[in-house]
Amino acid sequence: MLYFEDFAVGHKFVTASRRVDAAEIVEFAKKYDPQPFHLDAEAARTSLFGGLAASGWHSAAMTMRLIVDSEFRPAGGIIGGGGELQWLKPVRPGDELHVESEIVELRGSRSRPLQGLVKVRITTLNQHGEAVQTFTPTLLVQRRG
Amino acid sequence: MLYFEDFAVGHKFVTASRRVDAAEIVEFAKKYDPQPFHLDAEAARTSLFGGLAASGWHSAAMTMRLIVDSEFRPAGGIIGGGGELQWLKPVRPGDELHVESEIVELRGSRSRPLQGLVKVRITTLNQHGEAVQTFTPTLLVQRRG
To answer: What ipTM describes this predicted complex?
Structure first.
């Protein structure tokens, strides 16, 4: 467990990797983002993506799971107020994703003296080392004692 | 189908509403965000949330589904490069969510002459009229002809 005081700007965290499969892309899209380019390879061919691509929200959800399963364990849980989210490249069936995170800012919270704010730049990369998504949330992390 | 030329700054779109149930909160969390406050009401009571709350990614995914099922139908599909995402309030079992969107900016794309960029402020509200999430993406929308 990492308390606010355990973090320093520049700290880096790397997750394991996860293979994306076509069935999971379609399953997620059916529930939450049923657009042709996330549901059907044939229909996707003529779309802007040029082939089946994961919903951006699926990429974000897979990123979260990789982080939750990693050694990045802030005290109180991974709780964020949000941040800037960017999708940079399509995520395709067969892609192997992993996540690299870096602490970019630390500050106290005026309204919550028992917690501190940890801003982290979270980059999701594919097997070619290309960034497919970045997210820069501010997390609320418990202080020690 | 709405082409780039059909949009104007200030246009508003409202979706239907969707009830959030505890089983779906837990199902999503098991797959993508398995932290105690998204999995178990008892464990959630002592967390910062004070009770079971949906993963922020689940809120985002439900928001997307409401929009895809609505009359907001940009030509080429709803394809965004990302934007600022904020979670403002917990989403709880029994909440009724709907989404209100407003076009806030329109501009051409230098790299893609066949498309225009539509910036939209997307607010997800609960049954008390409280904003639980905002997302302000820039979408890539086909031009007419």
So the answer is: 0.96
